[in-house]
Amino acid sequence: MRLALPGLPGEADFMTAYQAALHSEKVAAKLVIKRQGNLGTFDRLVTEYFVSPEFRRLGPNTQINYRRIIAKRADTPGAANDLLKKIRILIHFAIDNGWRADDPTLRLKKFADGEFHTWTDEEISVFEARWSKGSCERTEFALLPCTGQRRSDVVRMAWDDVDVGSIRVVQGKTGAKLPVPLHPDLSAALSAWPQRGERILLTSIGKPFTSNRFGNFMANKIADAGLPDRCVTHGLRNAAARRLAEAGCIAAITGHRTLVEVSRYTKAADQVCLALTAIDCLTARQSAQRAPTPAKRVGKNPEKSN
Q1: For a Cys staple, 149 with which of 80, 153, 175, 299, CB 3.0–4.6 Å?
Q2: With contact defined as beta carbons under 8 Å apart, do 233 and 216 qualify?
Q3: Claim to verify: residue 105 and residue 188 sit in the same structural domain
Q4: pLDDT above 60 for 301
Q5: CATH number for the domain harbouring residue 247
Q6: Whose CA is closest to 148, among 186, 202, 99?
Q7: What pTM did the predictor assign?
Q8: What SS3 class is residue 134?
Q9: Cβ neighbours of residue 43 under 8 Å, at least 6 residues apart?
Q10: Are residues 221 and 193 both part of a single domain?
């Protein structure tokens, strides 16, 4: 089995992914030996899926996440929606292999409150007013709505990824390679932020953030800004997609490939060209919104005067 691991040997992300890959292989081997299950059972379906090429093509961290979700019961709407998604993956795997002819989950609907709140422009302004440019909080925040990427991808962004007005992104979940043009707000935030190491974002002790630690850090800072509980980190990805949609742009920035839910978009044929156009359109729209409204002229219409 071959997997592409992030970073370089010895780096935190590389070693984490390496250990996850080793763990995944060991667990898969144990499942084959101890949990084969009888044909037609759910245990057998899970076992076969975990050793299948479809599962092995997933990234190490995604494999761990899938195992965790499939193995547990869902006790919240968001977790229930995620579990339903994974069960559908298993069912489709069974159909593809001729073990089942239909999808019993076809008519099951997701919980409406399982979706992440999309930040409003007012909520974004509240956070920006609380944390000034040059602060760790403002820099971390700018990377989210200005690139539209997941927090797991944001924490891996390095200074070497910033080149000639864009930042290179390789999405860990999809493998999509996205050169994202730098929004002026992000350029300003990065210019005010000192380069302390290879990664753009580092903890207070100079270590790279993990995705979970970054999420916890941002949750605390969002609360410190006085924002409501509905404002979570992932909602900033939705906000980026909303802004791009309002500017009339296809989301070549976020990497989404379908129009399901508020933050999913069709994949662009020429991502680089569309991404440049998207940032230009978004910047122009925001500049127009910030411009003062001209005063209305008072007087008679000369065409109606005698």
Answers
A1: 153
A2: no
A3: no
A4: no
A5: 1.10.443.10
A6: 186
A7: 0.53
A8: coil
A9: 35, 36, 37
A10: yes
Closest CA to 6 of 188, 172, 203, 255: 172
Q: Which residue has the tokens 């065409």?
A: 303
Q: Which two tokens stand for residue 121?
A: 């422009």
Expressed as residue numbers, the domain containing 197 is 121-290
22 and 97 belong to one structural domain: yes
| Least confidently predicted of 103-117, 265-279, 288-302 | 265-279
Q: Given a cut of 80, is residue 71 above it in pLDDT?
A: no
* Residues 266-284, mean pLDDT to the nearest whole number: 63
CA 165 to chain centre: 21
Average pLDDT for 51-61: 85
If asked whether residues 162 and 203 sit together in one domain, one would say yes
Which residues neighbour 131 within 8 Å (Cβ) at sequence distance 6 or greater? 137, 138, 141, 221, 225
The verdict on 132 and 247 lying in the same domain is: yes
Number of separate domains in the chain: 2
The tokens of 125 are what?
Answer: 């302004």
- Residue with token string 């207070």: 204
